[in-house]
Amino acid sequence: MNNIGLGIELMVVGMSTVFLILLIVIWGGKLLIKAVNKIAPEETVAPKKGAAAPAQVDSTTMAVLQQVVSQITGGKGHVASAKRI
Where are the domains of the chain? Predict the structure, then answer.
């Protein structure tokens, strides 16, 4: 009976220790994230003024795309539109 009590005590101490260490890791991670965001915030990139819309794909490329999609899908798929990025 004494061994069962000792085993339960060790289990409780071990699980509590693991729980506390995991809490410290979580809090430390959150603190690190806040510190990094405060020291070096993420840069925002403004969109370029006068950026042109993506150019349409020429008819030869569109025909090739349609053939490839048709072959891959067994004739069930089709290309509605394609834009060059």
Answer: 1-43, 52-85
Q: Are 54 and 84 in contact, with CB atoms under 8 Å apart?
A: yes
Token pair 């004739």: residue: 75
Q: Vertex 29, ends 20 and 45: CA angle to 5°?
A: 165
d(CA 12, CA 24): 18
Distance CA 40, CA 12 (A): 42
Residue among 82, 20, 23, 75 at smallest CA distance from 56: 82
Per residue in 62-85, pLDDT tens? 899 999 999 999 989 888 888 877
Q: What is the pTM of this model?
A: 0.47
Give the three-class secondary structure for 17: helix
